[in-house]
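Running this now, will post back.
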Amino acid sequence: MGEQNDTPEDAVSFHSSGGLIDGTVEVAIAPDAMSATATFYPPRGDGLPIDPSFVHELLRRIGVVSGVLEEEIAQATMSCNLDRRVLKDVVVAKGASPEPEVPEYASIEPKFQHHGLQIDDSVQRVDFREIAALYIVHKGETIATIIPRRPGVLGKDVRGKETPFARESPGTCVAGRNVERRDDKLVALVDGRLALEAGKADIDEVLLVKGEVDFHTGHILFPGDVVIEGVVHDGFKVWSGGSIVCKSTVDAYDVNAKKDLICAQGIIGRRRGQVRVGGELKAKYIQNCRVAARGDVKISSALVNSRLYTLGTLDMGDKGVIMGGEVFATHGVRCGRLGNEAFQATHIHAGIDFTVQQRLDQANERMRLVTGRSRQVDQAAATHPGPELDKAKAEIAKAAATLRGQITELLGALDADDGAVVDCKGEIFPGVVVEICRVSIVVEEKLHACRFRLDKAAGRILIDR
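Update: finished.
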């Protein structure tokens, strides 16, 4: 039989009775009683090997009744006996930690959990304008997943003493405005901005930007209406799937409203700024900008050095000034003054559909390229005739015929309103050109309070003073 040596309170050593040549095992319990370790000493000479049952007996003697690792004990015993080497601190029993109780909660989707700037380390150059501080969701998109309740599990140390489990309180949210629970998910009912506040998920269909559009907000790309109380700084996009209302100045870089654009102050274009509006446009003034609107345009003060396109009417009241640039207004223009004393070139086009004009310009450019290519092929065929050049000439002729047909069709659709007028209540300076349905007149002397209209039968512009 083995003998038990005097050891510390939680440690036991054992060796065979045949002397100190038999295999020996020492076992100790950790201070927190969550594990027990053993050191295996191999037999020497003809000493007896360690029997795994001896290890189990030792564990029982020191009170280890839970979490005994039988496979680890068997492996360590075999390795020690066969390899004749000491194995230290082998874990032979392990307690079980308690598992906390977790109530049901909503886990927010990872893309809505970011805080601060999220920058990919692999990117060498970062445009901070592209990093938006807003969470935009779309109808039907999952905002959070419901994680079911997980009951707690008691812990137990190697002596069999149970440890109580904790109760966790994970962050969660409930369905708020425009959000509903569907089975195990919280789902968006509309397109809009996701706001996670006070444990509730709301979706706002109108985006209110209380400050300025700058590096704090990044580009604004929103599916609904946008209201901006501060300045829109140069270099920042503002795209809206609805209307845009700006209460201050817009430094237009790329502004796009699917519906209306209302600007209480002015729109200033820098670096070829462009504005596109699907509905009506209202602003105090527009300067150095390219603007296209499908609805009417109303400007109360001035239109300066800009290219403005509208499928409606440009209405600047009785005092609004148009100085420089070019205006395309399908249903006419009303303003207070045209041009200036410096005789700055100012072109007014009324009565035509600018979208047709743009397509016509593109077709004419393609025709110019085709004509140039045709001349090159004709020159080559004159010196080195052959079937390949004949084939090329046939293809070019076919393309030219197609383009001529398109141009003819577009010309027929270009004139949209031969009743459009250009009505100026004040001064009209030399340098102004007025065109209605492709019939134009050049102002060569200063005029006052005139209306320009088309005499279609005579094919000329009449001036009613």
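Residues 206-355+417-464 form one domain. More later if anyone needs it.
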